[in-house]
């Protein structure tokens, strides 16, 4: 057992507001977690701490063995793959898909004067094919559909072979077809034995890919429930977290939820 994430009483306070409230949470390297909770629950902030982009105000956050505040984040960050809408905005629209993924090797967005090795390009092309993007390698990032852009962001995040992969709402704003394609790819990735520890934030239980093992439910910045997926994604927990009576059902490894009448 080796821990990818070890949060002990992590709190984040901004401008006097408690955004994360004493979160204690451990993610083993073999686990794939989904983080769910209402808008404003603190999911993105939790991921930003896990990505070493933000420090806890109190408590301790250890990420793949390095404790924030006691390590060089410039050495830690390349070991973490992170995809979010905020990071995607940094990819120039006129960048080719191949470059958008390859620049991850240098932890930059926007190709400039870095020297890329053949091995970077080979790896980028392999990652593109893993995410069904190989036919788009020479297209401009800005010309892709939302679904394709999301897959490029994830391909970029896995380009460096991270030890921890963090995805903030990767399926948000996708149409049904694009969502299902992405969930299928994520499921394939999550079930690979070589896959890193994964944490995916989502609003919808329908977006939880098969192969995910655990869930953390946040409410008002605090842990509302956490543990193995089947024990956490239940009528009682989701109804409590979202403040409305919900009914959860499962079929073929996927989950759905709807309000009860
Ligand atoms: N500087 C700030 N001061 C006060 N509240 C903030 C500040 N920044 C963010 N928040 C609040 O923190 C809460 C959690 O934000 P976030 O982590 O983005 O939640 P989520 O991703 O679950 O929607 C939100 O309610 C947001 O309004
Ligand atoms: Mg968010």
Helix and strand topology:
Layout: E1 3-14, E2 17-28, E3 32-36, H1 43-50, E4 58-63, E5 66-67, H2 73-76, E6 80-83, H3 85-88, H4 97-102, H5 118-130, H6 146-158, E7 164-168, H7 176-190, E8 197-202, E9 214-219, E10 222-228, H8 229-232, H9 235-242, E11 246-251, E12 254-259
Parallel strand pairs: 3-8, 3-9, 6-7, 7-8
Antiparallel strand pairs: 1-2, 1-4, 4-5, 9-10, 11-12
This protein binds adenosine-5'-diphosphate and magnesium ion.
Can you describe what's shown?
By secondary structure, this protein is α/β, with parallel strands linked by helices. The chain has one domain: Rossmann fold. Helices cover 29% and strands 30% of the residues. The protein is built from 9 helices and 12 strands. It has helices spanning 43-50, 73-76, 85-88, 97-102, 118-130, 146-158, 176-190, 229-232, 235-242; strands at 3-14, 17-28, 32-36, 58-63, 66-67, 80-83, 164-168, 197-202, 214-219, 222-228, 246-251, 254-259. The strands form 3 sheets. Strands 6-7-8-3-9-10 form a 6-stranded mixed sheet, sandwiched between helices. A hairpin with a 2-residue loop joins strand 1 and strand 2 (17-28). Helix 6 packs parallel to helix 7 (176-190). The protein is globular. The relative contact order is 0.17. The structure holds adenosine-5'-diphosphate and magnesium ion. Adenosine-5'-diphosphate binds next to strand 2 and helix 1. Magnesium ion binds next to helix 1.
């Amino acid at each position: 057992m080796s821990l990818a994430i070890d949060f002990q009483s992590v709190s984040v306070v901004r401008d006097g507001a408690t955004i994360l409230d004493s979160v204690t949470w451990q993610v083993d390297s073999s686990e794939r977690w989904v983080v769910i909770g209402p808008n404003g629950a603190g999911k993105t902030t939790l991921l930003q701490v896990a990505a070493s982009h933000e420090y806890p105000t109190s408590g301790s956050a250890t990420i793949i063995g390095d404790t924030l505040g006691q390590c060089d984040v410039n050495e830690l960050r390349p070991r973490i793959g992170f995809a979010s809408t905020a990071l995607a905005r940094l990819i120039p629209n006129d960048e080719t898909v191949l470059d958008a993924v390859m620049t991850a090797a240098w932890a930059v967005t926007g190709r400039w004067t870095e020297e890329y090795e053949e091995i970077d390009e080979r790896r980028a092309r392999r990652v593109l094919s893993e995410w069904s993007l190989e036919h788009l390698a020479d297209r401009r990032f800005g010309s892709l559909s939302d679904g394709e852009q999301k897959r490029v962001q994830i391909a970029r995040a896995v380009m460096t072979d991270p030890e921890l992969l963090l995805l903030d709402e990767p399926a948000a704003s996708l149409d049904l077809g694009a969502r299902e394609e992405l969930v299928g790819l994520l499921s394939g990735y999550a079930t690979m034995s070589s896959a890193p520890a994964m944490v995916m934030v989502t609003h919808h239980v329908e977006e939880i890919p098969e192969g995910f093992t655990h869930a953390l439910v946040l409410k008002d910045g605090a842990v509302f429930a956490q543990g193995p997926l089947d024990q956490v994604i239940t009528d009682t927990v989701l109804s409590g977290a979202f403040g409305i009576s919900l009914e959860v059902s499962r079929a073929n490894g996927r989950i759905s939820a709807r309000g009860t009448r």
